[in-house]
Amino acid sequence: MAVNRDEASRTQIQATYAVLQEVAEVLEDFAGAVIAGGTAPFLLIPQTLEPHEGTVDVDVVLDRLKLRSNSELTLHELFERRLFVQDVKKPFRYSKVLQIQGAPHMVHVDLLTGGVPTPDGFVQIASEDVYATVIEGMELAFDRPSRAELSAGVCVDVTSIASFPAM
After folding, report:
1. Is pLDDT of 5 > 60?
2. Is residue 6 over pLDDT 80?
3. CA 75 to chain centre
4. What is this structure's pTM?
5. Which of 88, 104, 107, 140 has CA atoms 20 to 30 A from the CA of 94?
């Protein structure tokens, strides 16, 4: 399985975008969550104009103070229902293995938040029963996010181009 984008195959990138679709469906009812990282350009820039080379994971930035949902389930429960597995050593990471053209491809979803880094590097967001790794300045992801439609009317908030390079 690919470890980074340079080693990623086309099928690994397809798996990543399939997971992105699932994450968007989970986050659709959440306020205080945006997509960031390598999937942001794919969502913000028309692919016919400037095709994105791809990415191998999905980064989700959570605003600990504003995160809320209309769902009766926590974010953790929603991920589990979709067969994502929480990493024991990195509890802010959920992974899923997809079969693409007969080969397994693992895709990681990392939950991030802004603020002052903690000694162990992550914090618990008790209301959603999840952990997020703390990265100073990550709150910039919420500076005028854009709304992007993936497919079939599924929309997700995405960090703005202006704040993307700062991350």
Report:
1. no
2. no
3. 12
4. 0.88
5. 140
